[in-house]
């Protein structure tokens, strides 16, 4: 039987300079795993499809087929449907599967860094899919290289596999995993696949990134977000606890605790504001409902008279619905999104770069002309897109334009897996509110307060502790800013 091609490339990769650049923060990664299912690879494909919003640079699926202790992979650059076809997937069926969609936060955007990352050791293979960012990977890597380790990629995730293999004595996965994760600092929700088909899910002690456990017709499944379970019709069981490690094998499921499991829970609050899909539920809280609650609170904090409330679709949709409901001001979809603009939209020339923004959204002039408008956005990172869109509304004869943002100003970089990595990229760190209001061409600008964000997110719930470092600079896990973002790239 023909074996699948390994590491298939796709020409439409996001490293191509003619593709539309986006100033939106990039999602970090999505992971998926299914334990011993006759259609594990095909179901993993659909799981990745549901998680595509978490990474669009590359994707991969690795499968243990019970053949010679090997793991078979199919990876490529681009979107999930560009990389896989059903014939490829059928050829690697059998056993357990893990999958990954990636946007690089450390490491270059090249095929070598596409995950799952597969290593071979003593005639046995292991594959890893990682979501997050290890803040001490450079230190571990240096130590390991001094001891003779040779690294194949620039990814932070690779250090975990080195540590795991180093500590793997007589196939004792549990002890090797515990020793390996005890060295890691930072954010990780990871899934490891062994050549025997065991699947091991791991969440860091702070629980920065989501990772949910479910069951599909009796087969355990893990996914970054519950929307993947909905698509494959799996039953949601629970979110992994911070610092929880689950080992899924022929003996069933075993849950063990990370050696540092007592760390303070710090779930990334930006998952709710922006990253996760609105149909996902994280830690018992539905993302759509959470965004609406942020919008409601924003309306309470920043009332202004206007004729309509509108989002820039799709980012502000749900907060805008909440804002309109709370304020009593009508909600309108006064900008229409072109759903057929893909990654392959080419900017004709530099002088025509406005097209890159305009092609995606077009205002409904009849709704705009002569109206006072409240635009609800979920975040402002660099501000250039918002500025262009506000200008377009003014040109159509809008009256007053107010912007309301459903999170506090981003003033600090993220070191736990999100791509706004320097203060220079964050316009709210560069300009005070009045200057920013003028720069964006607005009549008024208001951000949700940190207190409002936490209260609307249910922070009175003792279980709900969030990372909010990009808003207030209080980082839950210490790091060296000189190395954390540079070490692997
Ligand atoms: S710094 Fe911001 S984006 Fe990064 S993990 Fe914390 S809340 Fe999320």
From TrEMBL:
SUPFAM superfamilies xrefs: N-terminal nucleophile aminohydrolases (Ntn hydrolases), PRTase-like
Co-factor(s): [4Fe-4S] cluster
Pathway this chain belongs to? Purine metabolism; IMP biosynthesis via de novo pathway; N(1)-(5-phospho-D-ribosyl)glycinamide from 5-phospho-alpha-D-ribose 1-diphosphate: step 1/2
One Pfam entry for this protein is GATase_6
Q: What are the binding positions for [4Fe-4S] cluster in this chain?
A: 268, 414, 467, 470
Q: How is the cofactor bound?
A: Binds 1 [4Fe-4S] cluster per subunit.
Q: Which GO terms describe its biological process?
A: 'de novo' IMP biosynthetic process; purine nucleobase biosynthetic process
What EC class does the entry list? Answer: transferase
Q: Which HAMAP family match?
A: PurF
Task: Name the job this protein performs.
Answer: Catalyzes the formation of phosphoribosylamine from phosphoribosylpyrophosphate (PRPP) and glutamine.
The protein's name: Amidophosphoribosyltransferase
Which species is the source of this protein?
A: Desulfobacter postgatei 2ac9
